[in-house]
Amino acid sequence: MSTDLKKAPAKAGTPGKAPTNVAERDAVDLTGNPVLRMLRKLAAGELGSVRVLIVLALIWLIFGVSNENFLTSGNLTNLTLQIAAVGTISVGVVLVLLLGEIDLSVGAVSGLAAAVVAVLSVKHGWNAYAAMAAGLAVGAAIGLFQGTVSTRLAIPTFVVTLAGLLSWQGAQLAVLGDTGTVNISDNAILNLAGVFLADWLGWLVAVVVVGALVAAELGHRAKRGAAGLVQAPVVSSVLRLVGAAVALFGGVLIVNSDRGVPLAFVILVVIVANVHILLTRTKFGRHVFAVGGNAEAARRAGIPVARVRTIVFMLASTLAAFGGILAASRLFAVNQSSGGSDLLLLAIAGPVIAGTSLFGGRGSVWGALLGALVIGSISNGMDLLAFTSSVKFMVTGAVLLGAVALDAATTRNRTTIRT
Amino acid sequence: MQGGRHLVSPSAAVTPSGASAPGAGAAPLLKLRGISKTFGAVRALDNVDLDVFPGEVVALVGDNGAGKSTLIKTISGAGPATGGTITFDGRDVTVRSPTDSKALGIAAVYQDLALCDNLDVVENLFLGREERGHNFPFSRLREVEMEQQAIGLLSELQVKTLASVRTEVGMLSGGQRQSVAIARSLLGNPRIVILDEPTAALGVAQTAQVLALVSRLKERGLGVILISHNLSDVFEVADRIVVLRLGRNGGEYPATSDQRQAVVAAITGVGMDSPQAAAAAEVAPPSAVAAVQDPLAKPDPLTKKDLS
Q1: Are B257 and B235 in contact (CB under 8 A)?
Q2: Residue B29 in contact with residue B52, Cβ under 8 Å?
Q3: Chain B contacts of A282, Cβ < 8 Å?
Q4: What distance in Å separates the CA atoms of residue A93 and residue A101, rounded to the nearest whole number?
Q5: Closest C-alpha among B184, B175, B194, B65 to residue B130
């Protein structure tokens, strides 16, 4: 097998350093120092989430140095609140991107759903929870419609959701009516983005989550050990758990010295964690990756490709609707520009910055959270430095392009190693 | 697998004319008789017979357009026959869809392999038949069990070059990918495996790897139908060679090296020195015979192109 792989390293541009074939490279990996191995994986683009963390750290360093207020607990608490809505929408975008599709309607759907909730609650006096359920149902119905149209009629989702973007914006204006702005007064809706966990509750949540992570990792290792399967090195398990614990306890420590952990951020993390489990531990998730990787192979393996696609579009629209509700809760109102402007583009840019492939089959839902943090940090930091929107947009664009360029450069190794 | 070991070596039972039944007690697992396939006015297959015994590798050879793929599709259900009978394990069966053929225990590995490059070996092996603890929508996958089975299956097939079954399939070499695709076809416990050009586009070492795998399928008592353009591969691994020519049976040969010239002649339809080829050529238009004087000298698709 070495014969057919000889050319690959030369193409990758690192002759001499790159091992000559996959088996040899893996053999090197298995014997090498774990830290070195991780660095090599990082360089080869296999640890996308670690790389985005480095980007995030750089951004925080730059803004922290330029503005003394950026790294204060008050501002970081604001940051988590600011990204809750766009992060939630991004979770749905990740699902769609994993299929190799695109959903351009998520911004408009979030605006429409928020309008529905506000009008039902304020003008029709609905119970807040019933109104929110109706808003989510609108999102789910839109996803079902768009998914069905694109799979049944074989129309590219780009076109279907572009039509959706226009239509749902119109629907939003119609729902809001003449006044154009509806102020939300119901506390149940406003609490979503207005409530902070008590200090002790924040700590308790952190302890419980870290405990659950440790238990899950131990259980996983025990099961693999009992089955006689190869274990990941202990170092990497420990590093991951310590990293998660530091992030959680550190985060709680910081925000507790201000107002506490925002409920909206907790909701976002819970959504991300659950979608992560759905994607990586269930049959449905496996099928999403398969359809995104090779739809024809998935079809021949007996996977109901059209159904998987439709369900993903339903999930994406429902999450967009929920993101819209979170945004409305934070703004205390829904107006004609809710869900418009750059929301859609930021919701797509976030996961892409965090390494989700636009061609499907590669990415993690944590990218939604990390990408939203990167974009939110840039926006927040620029605001503190009193930059105008013009500069903000250009810098965000440059970071997006830079992240994707870095991704393209590092993953070239991986793709050219094939025969 | 109920083994093919108790059988008399199938190749020994083969008679050059092919149509007569093999000897003593051996019954074909798959028996095609008079298979025809028409596309409108075009007759792609005309009265084709084929037998496959358990524990036997049957090579299906023929020039481009001879009807190899069409014949395979009538067995795999991808393109059902328009005439003729299929007998599987002694019963007359109808194969109208891939589901039918899968239910019978016939697995096909097509040239494009149909693997998901972004998934690892275990995930690809169990694609579409994932194992779960319970059958609820959000039940967890049984990853550990699937990984164990994958390792067991691959070591049984002596696929040794994989560093880890958690390697992405996109990172594997062509031969390893072919091995994964073949291993996947075995998970449904088939009795017949159809391999469509498994060594096309492979280098020398990888070809050897895949051919060794084909022999192990045979050892497991499976009937293997091997389509190949590459006669040296065919003679290395097959027990019997069935030639298709212009949609008809073009003769049947034991895969012994002294038959090579006869097989080439049967494929091209010239060289009337052997009785089988003469029988086949009777049905061929005379112009085809006149066109080629020396089959071995023509620039031919039968020589392996090493694409490495």
Answers
A1: yes
A2: yes
A3: 137-141
A4: 9
A5: B184
CA–CA separation, B231 and B301 (whole Å): 10
Task: Measure the CA–CA gap between A337 and A321, rounded to whole angstroms.
Answer: 15
A215 close to B (CB below 8 A):
no
Q: Count of CB contacts below 8 A, A vs B?
A: 118
Secondary structure element (H or E) that encloses residue B15, with its range: none
Q: Residue B132 has what DSSP assignment?
A: B
Residue of A nearest to B163 (CA): A23
Nearest to A288 by CA among B172, B119, B125: B119
B25: left (phi over 0), alpha (psi -120 to 50) or beta: left
Q: Does B129 touch chain A (CB under 8 A)?
A: yes
Q: Give the ranges where A67-198 is alpha helix by DSSP (H).
A: 73-98, 106-122, 128-152, 157-176, 187-194
On whether the CB atoms of residues B127 and A298 are closer than 8 A, the answer is yes
Q: Is the CB of B163 less than 8 angstroms away from the CB of A292?
A: no
Task: Compute CA distances A13 → A9, A24, A42, B168, whole Å.
Answer: 7, 18, 17, 22
Mutate to test the interface with B, among A22, A220, A303 (most CBs of B within 10 A): A22
In Å, how far are A277, A413, A419, B170, B245 from A3, measured between CA atoms?
40, 18, 10, 18, 35
Name the token pair of A243: 């990293």
CA geometry: angle at A344 spanning A343 and A348, to 5°? 115
Q: Which residues contact B192 (CB under 8 A, 6 or more apart)?
A: B29, B30, B52, B75, B105, B106, B107, B222, B223, B224, B225
Return the SS3 of A22. helix
- State chain A's maximal CA–CA distance in angstroms: 73
B83-88 sheet: strands from edge to edge = B42-52, B30-39, B83-88, B91-93
Domain boundaries, chain B: 10-241
DSSP string, A36-101: HHHHHHHHTT--HHHHHHHHHHHHHHHHHHH-TTTTSHHHHHHHHHHHHHHHHHHHHHHHHHHTT-
Residue A168 has φ and ψ, to the nearest 5°, of -70, -30
CA atoms lying within 13 Å on the CB side of residue A29: 19
Please tell us whether the domain made up of B10-241 is placed in CATH 3.10.450.50: no
Instruction: Please tell me the CATH code under which domain A2-195+262-416 is placed.
Output: 1.10.3470
Q: Where are the domains of chain A?
A: 2-195+262-416
Question: Quick check: A1 and B171 CB within 8 A?
Answer: no
Pair A321, A91: CB distance under 8 Å:
no
Distance of CA A348 to the CA centre of its chain: 9
Structure tokens at A282: 């269930």
> A106-122 vs A157-176: helix axis angle to the nearest 10?
20
User: ipTM score here?
Assistant: 0.82
Sign of CA dihedral A255, A256, A259, A264: positive
Global pTM? 0.81
The string of DSSP letters for B45-65 reads: EEEEEEEE-TTEEEEEE-STT
Nearest C-alpha in A relative to B185: A301
Per CB-CB distance under 8 Å, the chain A contacts of B149 are none
Please name the residue ranges forming H helices in B44-173: 68-76, 98-104, 121-125, 143-156
State the angle between helix axes of A48-66 and A366-384 in degrees (0 to 180), rounded to the nearest 10. Answer: 10
Rg (alpha carbons) of chain A, rounded to whole number: 23
pLDDT string in tens for chain B (308-residue length): 343 333 333 343 333 333 333 443 478 899 999 999 998 888 889 999 999 999 999 999 988 888 888 898 899 888 888 888 999 988 999 888 888 888 899 998 888 888 999 999 999 999 988 888 887 878 889 989 999 999 988 888 888 788 888 889 998 888 889 889 989 988 888 999 999 988 887 888 888 888 998 998 899 889 999 998 888 888 999 999 999 988 888 888 888 888 888 888 888 877 545 455 445 444 444 444 444 444 444 444 444 444 43
